[in-house]
Write a structure and sequence with these properties.
Blueprint lengths: L11 H11 L8 E2 H7 L4 H14 L2 E3 L3 E4 L4 H9 L3 H16 L3 E7 L2 E8 L14 E3 L4 H7 L4 H10 L13 H14 L2 E4 L6 E9 L5 E10 L5 H26 L3 H6 L5
Antiparallel strand pairs: 1-3, 2-3, 4-5, 4-9, 5-6, 7-8, 8-9
Helix pairs in contact: 2-3, 5-9
Length: 271
């Protein structure tokens, strides 16, 4: 967020401290002081203060050379997850879906410009990156992201596309805003999205929107597959019907329990 757009209450140091925590990940479990400073665009002195404060609080540990997160960081998400019953409702359905099709299945919500995995049933690893609950990807380049984005108001879609970082992740990635908007329109009309090797070479994914009792799209479920094992036609013919049936069952449960109003309000779906 540009400095000029920040509200008077904005605490810049707090933002930087969160950035230090978020710089760690599956691909960067250990980082030196210099690496943290570079990745977070901080001076070494500032990075050192943030890291040592996190060490004192128990969220980071160090051997004096490298730093890594501790399990205590899980506390930061516990308050949200403990009151977030959507995964509890969805997981049995995802497990049944994974058993039916022999592929992994997941549920994601929109958070800002990213999708975040909130439930997942893995059967095999098909991506370079390890996907777990909490994993994030740019929404516009994923099947789950596109089905959620496609159901936003037109003016919000335009605003998101305007600020989206449409870099090429593979040679198939859509990097044209006009083409991406047209694709979102097609996704909205057909009710599902298939992304063909745009996020990662060899990865195809089909997703369908999940609606609450009022018909608002609050999440998306997907099935990712190896392109070498599944043609686009087989994804539509063999996987999509099972996915749509699963989503229908999830929505029937949500219509009774309706635990996701806070998700659609707080996750960024309507920002």
């Amino acid at each position: 967020m540009p400095a000029a757009d920040r509200a008077p209450h904005f605490v810049r140091s707090f933002e930087r401290g969160l950035a230090v925590i978020r710089v760690f990940g599956a691909d960067r479990p250990e980082l030196t002081l210099s690496e943290v400073a570079r990745c977070c665009d901080l001076t070494r002195a500032a990075a050192r203060r943030f890291l040592l404060t996190l060490v004192d609080l128990g969220y980071v540990r160090t051997d004096g050379r490298v730093f890594r997160l501790t399990p205590r960081v899980l506390e930061l998400g516990y308050a949200y997850l403990s009151g977030f019953t959507l995964p509890e409702i969805v997981l049995p359905h995802l497990k049944q879906l994974a058993e039916q099709v022999g592929e992994s299945s997941s549920l994601c919500v929109l958070d800002g410009d990213d999708v975040v995995y909130v439930a997942r049933v893995p059967t095999r690893r098909i991506m370079t990156a390890t996907i777990t609950v909490g994993t994030r990807f740019p929404a516009h380049v994923t099947s789950v992201g596109r089905v959620i984005l496609a159901h936003l108001a037109d003016e919000e879609i335009d605003a998101r596309l305007k600020r989206a970082d449409l870099r090429s992740l593979t040679e198939r990635t859509i990097v044209s805003r006009a083409l991406l908007k047209a694709e979102l329109g097609r996704v909205r009309r057909q009710g599902y999205a298939i992304v063909d090797q745009e996020l990662e070479e060899g990865l195809r994914s089909v997703a369908a929107p999940v609606r609450d009792r009022d018909g608002a799209v609050v999440a998306a479920a997907n099935i990712p597959v190896h392109a070498s094992r599944n043609s686009l036609e087989s994804v539509r013919r063999d996987l999509l019907p099972h996915l749509l049936e699963t989503v229908a069952r999830i929505e029937r449960d949500l219509a009774v329990k309706d635990p996701v109003r806070a998700v659609s309000r707080d996750s960024g779906t309507h920002r």
